[in-house]
TrEMBL record:
Histidine kinase domain sequence ranges: 759-976
Uppermost EC category: transferase
InterPro entries registered for this protein in UniProt: CheY-like_superfamily, HATPase_C_sf, HATPase_dom, His_kinase_dom, HisK_dim/P_dom, HisK_dim/P_sf, Homeodomain-like_sf, HTH_AraC
Keyword Electron transport: no
CDD domains hit by this protein: HATPase, HisKA, REC_OmpR
Keywords carried by this UniProt record: Kinase, Membrane, Phosphoprotein, Transcription, Transcription regulation, Transferase, Transmembrane, Transmembrane helix
Protein name: histidine kinase
Gene Ontology molecular function terms on file: DNA-binding transcription factor activity; phosphorelay sensor kinase activity; sequence-specific DNA binding
Residue span, Response regulatory domain: 1018-1133
Enzyme Commission number(s) from the entry: 2.7.13.3
UniProt domain HTH araC/xylS-type: residue ranges: 1166-1264
The keyword Transcription regulation appears for this protein: yes
Amino acid sequence: MRETNQVCEDDDGFIWISSKIGIVRYSRDDIRTYQIPYDSEDIIAVRMEYTNGKLYVYTNNGQLFIYNKIQDRFELITNLAKQVKDPHVVVNRMLVDSEETIWEASTSGLLRYNKNDGLNTFFDNRNIHFLEWLDDFRFFYGTEEYIGIFDITTQSSEVYYTFPEDLHLFFSYIEFDRKENTLWLGTLSDGLYCLRKGNSGVELIAVENIPNQPVQAICPISTSTLLIGVDGQGVWEMDKRTQEILAVYKDDADNPNSLKGNGVYDIFCDRNNRVWICTYSGGVSFFDQASSSVVTKVAHMANNPNSLVNNDVNSILEDRNGNLWFATNNGVSFWNTKTNKWKSFYHNKEQHAQVFLALCQDSYGRIWAGSYSSGIYILDENTGKELRHLSHENTPGDFAGDFVFNIIEDQKGDIWIGGVRGDLIRYNYNSDTYTSYPDYTIYNIAEYGPDKLLMGTTYGLLLFDKSSGTHEVLVEGFVVSDLYISENIVWIGTNGNGIVRYNLTNKSTHSYTADNGLPSNFVSSIDYANGYFWIGTELGLCRLNEADQTILTFNSLLYLSNVSFNQDAQCILKNGDLVMGTNKGALMFSPNDLKLTPEEGRIYVQDISVSGRSIREIEDLKPEVPLNELKEISLRYFQNTISLELIPLGVISPGAKFSWKISGLDQEWSKPVDNRVLSYSNIPYGTYTIQLRMVDNSITGVIAEREIKVNIVPPFWKTSWFILLVIFFVAGLGIFGVYFYIDRLKKKHSEEKIRFFANTAHDIRTSLTLVNGPIEELNKESGLSERGSNYLHLATEQVHRLSTVVTQLLDFQKVDVGRERLTFSFVDIVKTINDRVMMFEAYAKSRDIDLVFSCNCVKFDTSVDERMIQKVVDNLISNAIKYSNPNSRVNIELRCAATKWTLEVQDHGIGITKKAQKMLFREYYRGENAINSKIVGSGIGLLLVKNYVSLHGGKVTCYSQSGVGSTFLVTIPFIAKEYSERKKEAPSKPVEKDVLKSSIINPVTEKQAVDKRGSKMSVLIVEDHDYLREFLQSAMQDLFSIYLAEDGEKAWEIVQKHNPDLIVSDIMMPKMDGFELCEKVKSNFLTAHIPVILLTALAGKAQQMRGLGIGADDYLTKPFDVTLLQQRIKSILKNREIIRDKAMKMTSESKEPVILENELNDKFLKRMIAVVNDNIGNPNFSKNEFAAVMNVSPSLLYKKIKSLTDQSPIEFIRTIRLNHAYDLLSSKEHSITEVSELCGFSSVGYFSTVFRKHFGKSPTRVLE
């Protein structure tokens, strides 16, 4: 990015840099560019304003944007050029107040924009050059004529200073110094001005020495210093009070640390006192004021001989004059610290090596410079003149000291030289003699007492005896990079093993590594100053306190952080300062000035991704707050792969690392790494806390920590509520299974009980029929004595009573097993109850009891099961009369309301004890006083009442006092007629009502039991009870021809063989019951015409509906009157003859939907009539052709026509032809001959004969 316009800093510590191509966000470890969604591309400059925690971006042509922290992008707010309707408007500066109202200085005036109020303009069409805050509610604004103050609360302005008429200034920048109450005004072509308010008023002062070029930036960097950015002239540092120019910073191609570009557009000082400079051609430059004030960096400056010759500093020496010598990779540099002059020696040499690794000054002031491959150069300390050169080539003897790593002078004045590829050499300058000790590879030499040397080698620490020339290995196993001796303790710097502390007295060792706080285990140099050990490593400087064994790093200082120090390249100056050599020059600092300010960094969450996608892009995970402020995130069970992108903020050191762990998953913290993205895959569902740590490059110093809670919701089938639901479901299923099993057992037992009661009732009713039959026959006899008649009457009453008890018992059992169903009908409940009361009047009078009925209305219609209600009323009234005292009264009161009706039955009798009241509605229970009263009862009547009332949704209540009487209260809700119609049950097939009625209203005589030929009608009696079957045979054999069968299977054989005229069948029979037999008869084409009467002991309506639904013609309940059975048989047969006659009168297809009640017979009859009508003009249409068209045999056709019409097929055809002929003659449109031919008669004479015989008159009379 080359052309930059402005720099600002947000609350998180990010540096934002604007340019036309986008906005750059900078931190030490992360740089990213944001594109701006321009509304138009004609952009010259892009500037920013950060306030109230929000970053605004505006362009010179009026486009306004805001940074959306949640979505991490810039969004367009408005285009002011379109709103002011001026495409050429230029926006110079922008401010944002505490209410987020935007104020912009433009060529169209002062613009005020608020998202609620829109755009307002002040000072229309006046060019406003700049804006600058005066305080929280007022700001300066500048025009060509004056500077004013605008109050945003009152939206009013005042003139602060008016420029002289002869002074025409065009302002480019303004900076207000609140403390000094001074405005610094930068102009486009007139340099810098100062507008200061004093006692005498506001004074405008021109600043001298500032070039008359555009002043684009003014930035105070201290209370006394301003930095002024001049377009084309770099940065000028000026004293605010004296206006003296302190320094000028410009672009210098020969100085890599100089300003990059002289076209300065903005200067910004951040919270860490770093200065950022935007230039037109060189991008952004910055320098750290804090580091430069504490640490002095000595470095090479390109094309500048008055500087360090090379930045790789391998050794440093302060001579006795206070000057500094530097051994580098390109010769030796000499720095006269008093004159600040530099000299360099042996640099850029072509023939010999330029690398120098060791420096030493002997007691005579001579400088010894050891090189790598060229031996030793001895120089004059003042002039740098070479005094002697010791090397393999120019030194007598076998001098093996060309690769020198270290040089020292001992107490005796001998020079000791150590290195590689050679020997340990002791040299005496005065005698120019040397002694060699072969096969030593030495990096460091330190004197230990007058007679011994400590030497660091490639394999450990050696103790060398000067006298004997022998050595002892003290510690081995590592490469020694530097040594420092403190009394009997040797501090050893190693390559990869940290620091080893060796005790020469007890031979013990102790190590310090990165685990203890060292920045790196590669230690380059060790020195002692100011009470501490100063240790240079591959990753920066640290300080070791021997007393408390603590190690501190200096990551907050830029120059000392993460820098690689060179081996044994350090020097403590006489003033106590420390100079250390690095691969980027030498660093000079005072140990007293290094403040122990720990890093104050923060962990910034840049992004959170789930399954490789940012949660900003996932609809159901879109955050409502910026991701860095997110404390908790909830994910679904399949969103269990998560990664976090982290950025270290606020740290000076670039070596910050991250460590993390997830509570519940990880036992230990992860190893600190510089990876900025942490990822976890396939995390099990649950709630976790991701714990984050940022550590400095020592890996032990924790800079910052933070936590993010992650809740991965389990799949619904693994949630606690679902598991509980499953548990409850399984438990419920188990309970249901148990209850179902118990219910099945109950039903099985109930069915067995019902079957037992039904069978018993069947047997009882069968026996009652056998008893009732002879009694009825005896009732027909005359001549019985009075005593005999009384006995006969008593027997008749008991038969009826037994029949009623059996019926009530069966009703109770049906309710008990839940088989009773309501059959609603819409009735007048007043009339229904009154009718039942009237039935009991005679019975009440016989017991001298008054029966009184009252009602609060004349009529009340409601939907009820009338049969059940009748039984409820009958039971209550019967019990009231039965248990009332003689000469008492039974009150029956009916009260009808809009939503319910209530029946109250009150007696004055024996009453019911309190104990008995609790058991009153239990099965078969009777109170003791009822039992003691000798009144006969079963104990099921009231329970039946309760069940019937409950089925209606009502309730029954009893109020009683023993010896006084009882009151029963029945309350049933009102049910509308519509409900009755929905619930009404009907037979599955229509019932021929006329046929059922005929058995009651059309009694027939005995002679009607024969057919037209005079023969007896045949009746099949099917009954499994032998006595009842024989009784029915003897009772009806005089009237009918009787066939007998003991079960349904034998009955079906007889039906197929003899085709009886009627069947009387019991229902409950072995092998095949009556229902099955009836269904088989009615569903078979050959037998569907045969009437069926069913007999049963089961008097329920459901059984009757079932029988009638499958085609039964009548239904009788045992015990029955044999005479009634005879009459019903005769009536059904008589009605069959009526139907036959009706069928014979059909001359064409009937328009009636039903001719016969049996569907098969009805269809067959209609088809026969249609076939005959289709062939009515064919004289050759015979019975055989008739049978062929009907797809039956002639014999079967004969049986069907005979059973349905009592005619042969020929008679059937002739009858239809004659009826058709009668219709034709009646129309008087045809002659007799024509009619005879049209109706299929072969001759007119035959036609006339049969016509006269059939109708009783001739065809001629019909024509008349």
